[in-house]
Design goal:
By secondary structure, the protein is an alpha+beta fold. It contains ten helices and eight strands. The protein has a five-stranded antiparallel β-sheet. Helix 8 packs across helix 10.
Length: about 325
C-alpha cells in the first residue's frame, strides 16, 4: 500500500516537473524573440513560475510524507488492536492544512493577492475566515468531526445503527463525513453535522451482549401455551443463546428464555420471546434461525399463523 502511495506521488512530481521545465523553457526562449525592453517582464514571469513550481513541489512532498506517516501509524494501531480513529481524522486535518498553506504561499507572489494571503496567515485572518463561514455547512461538518473524535460516540470499526435501515461498521471519519459499510457491502456517506444530531445505537460501546425480541402472531383458535412452549424450546436449544440469568433466577428455576402474550390484535395474538446473545451478529443470526425452526414446529403441531380475514355479507333485495 505504501509503495503504491510513493509511486503515485513520484508520478505526480514527474508530471509537475515536466510541465515546469516546459513553461520555463518557453519563457527562456522568449528572450530571443521579444524586444529587450521587455526583459524585465520576462524575468519577473520566470521568477513567478519558478516560485509557484517550488511551492507546488514542496506541498506535494510534504503532504505525501504526512499522509504516509499517518497511514503507517494507523496500520500500527490496528496491528496492536488499538483505536486508530484519531489518527485517521488528524491525517485529513494535517493534509488539508498543508494544501491550505500552499495556496496562501502561492497567492503571496501576486501583488493584488498579497493582502488576502497575509491576512489569512495572521491569527486575525484565521478568526475572520472562521467567522465568515460559521453558518455554513462546511464548518459544521468539520466541528462535527472534532466532536466525534473528542467525545467518541463511536470509533472506526464500531457497529452502529443510525436508522432502522442504516446499520453497518464505521470505516472512516473525514473532515466532512463519516463512512459506514452496511451488510450489503455498500458504503453509506453521512455528513458529520447530520450524524452528530442523530440518535444512534452503538453495538460495540460498553457491554456487547444484547437482548433480541422475537415476535410471532398466532390465530385466536391456536393453543397459546403450546405456542409459548415451542418458542421457548426453539430459542433455548440454539447454540448462540446466552444464559443471562442471575444466580438467584437460576435457583428459582426461571427459564433462559422468557415468553409472554403481549398483544391482542384484530385477527391475531402476538407472542414475544426475549433472548440474550453475546453480540449483535449472534443476535441477528439467532433470530433468523429460530424464526425458521419455530415456523416448522408451528406447522407440525397445529399452531396457525393467521392472515387477515374478511367476512362479506350479501343482502337480498325484496
Amino acid at each position: 500500500m505504501f509503495l503504491r502511495e510513493t509511486s503515485n506521488t513520484l508520478n505526480l512530481l514527474k508530471r509537475v516537473l515536466k510541465a515546469l521545465w516546459l513553461v520555463l523553457g518557453l519563457i527562456a526562449l522568449s528572450f530571443v524573440l521579444v524586444d529587450r525592453k521587455k526583459d524585465e517582464i520576462i524575468i519577473r514571469n520566470f521568477e513567478i513560475v519558478l516560485y509557484l513550481g517550488a511551492v507546488t513541489i514542496g506541498v506535494i512532498v510534504v503532504a505525501a510524507s504526512i499522509n504516509i506517516w499517518f497511514k503507517r501509524s494507523v496500520a500500527r494501531k490496528i496491528a496492536n488492536n488499538e483505536d486508530p480513529t484519531a489518527y485517521k481524522y488528524l491525517r485529513y486535518v494535517a493534509v488539508f492544512g498543508v494544501y491550505f498553506l500552499g495556496i496562501v504561499l502561492a497567492l503571496l507572489v501576486f501583488p493584488s493577492m498579497q493582502g488576502i494571503a497575509q491576512t489569512a496567515l495572521g491569527g486575525a485572518g484565521v478568526i475572520a475566515i472562521i467567522a465568515g463561514i460559521a453558518s455554513q455547512e462546511a464548518l459544521a461538518n468539520i466541528i462535527g468531526g472534532f466532536f466525534i473524535i473528542i467525545f467518541k460516540p463511536f470509533k472506526i470499526g464500531h457497529l452502529i445503527k443510525v436508522t432502522d435501515t442504516m446499520v453497518g461498521r464505521v470505516v472512516d471519519i473525514t473532515l466532512r463525513h463519516t463512512v459506514i459499510r452496511n451488510f450489503e457491502n455498500k458504503m453509506i456517506v453521512i455528513p458529520n453535522s447530520i450524524i452528530n444530531k442523530e440518535k444512534l445505537i452503538n453495538y460495540d460501546l460498553g457491554e456487547l451482549k444484547c437482548c433480541e425480541r422475537i415476535e410471532i402472531g398466532i390465530s385466536y383458535d391456536s393453543d397459546v401455551e403450546l405456542a409459548k412452549k415451542i418458542m421457548k424450546e426453539e430459542c433455548e436449544k440454539h447454540p448462540l443463546i446466552l444464559d443471562n440469568r442471575t444466580e438467584e433466577e437460576i435457583a428459582e428455576g426461571k427459564p433462559i428464555v422468557k415468553t409472554a402474550l403481549i398483544n391482542l390484535n384484530d385477527y391475531s395474538i402476538t407472542i414475544r420471546a426475549w433472548t440474550w446473545e453475546r453480540n449483535y451478529n449472534d443476535s441477528f443470526q439467532l433470530k433468523i434461525d429460530v424464526l425458521d425452526s419455530i415456523k416448522k414446529r408451528f406447522d407440525s403441531e397445529g399452531i396457525e399463523i393467521p392472515f387477515p380475514y374478511r367476512t362479506i355479507v350479501m343482502k337480498k333485495e325484496n
